[in-house]
Design brief:
alpha/beta; Metallo-beta-lactamase, Chain A; 11 strands; globular
Length: 233
């Protein structure tokens, strides 16, 4: 079994504790993929490399943005469109529109099953859809509800950033994209990266379920504290 950790935006001990609650130890991790340099994604990547000798995959732009720290020879630079093999998994990074140096999201496959991750982007493109065709499962950003964002106590500059072309996907944007890539093989959809202030799980579920013609309860929501249960794809 190959275990790929995608993003590690938590303090080292907290990440370790959360993994243990899911029945996984740090020593079980074969590699960690960091999507971009924002703190809630890069987190303890340096410690994972230095203390646990876990290979860290990230773009050159991300590495430069975090100050090019010593990675204990565990750094592997990756880029858009260049696949990377980790044991029996193929990791396929692709670029997205986000306010970071060289942000990447990923599609991961074992040759049969395909999983896609799509969070932290202000808008989707035909290229992103091309990278995420024929998925069996997807974790997709449903960051905000536009009306809740407009009415929130966020300062105006932050509202503009979140809703901008290089910010985060709204529920409606996520639903529109899901409609583009939906097909019979897509069995699992997880709404993720929900803003605690500017969204509600039921709003995300309603938006995604409507385009898939399924029950709202069929759409899973990743909680900021506990995530979601393991899925067998």
């Amino acid at each position: 079994m190959t275990r790929l950790l995608i993003d590690c935006g938590l303090p080292f001990k907290q990440l370790e504790e959360r993994l243990v609650r899911r029945g996984v130890c740090l020593t079980d991790i074969d590699a960690a993929f960091v999507t971009h340099e924002h703190s809630d994604h890069v987190g303890c990547a340096r410690q994972l490399a230095q203390q646990e000798s876990i290979p860290i995959l990230m773009s050159r732009g991300t590495y430069v943005a975090i100050g090019q720290p010593d990675m204990n020879h565990q750094l592997q630079l990756v880029s858009d469109g260049t696949d990377v093999t980790i044991k029996d998994l193929v990791v396929c990074p692709f670029t997205v529109a986000h306010d970071a140096k060289e942000p990447l999201q990923v599609m991961v496959t074992d040759g049969q099953i395909k999983f896609g991750l799509l969070t932290d982007l202000g808008h989707t493109t035909p290229y992103v859809a091309e990278c995420l065709i024929s998925l069996d499962a997807i974790v997709i950003e449903c960051n905000h509800d536009p009306e809740m964002l407009r009415a929130s106590q966020y300062p105006s500059f932050l509202k503009q950033r979140v809703a901008g072309n290089y910010g985060h996907l709204s529920n409606a944007q996520a639903a529109d994209f899901l409609q583009i890539i939906a097909h019979p093989r897509l069995k699992h959809v997880v709404a993720a990266h929900l803003s605690l202030q500017n969204n509600h799980p039921k709003l995300a579920q309603k938006a995604l379920a409507a385009v898939l013609n399924t029950a709202e309860g069929d759409i899973l929501v990743a909680d900021a504290t506990d995530g979601c249960d393991w899925l067998a794809i």
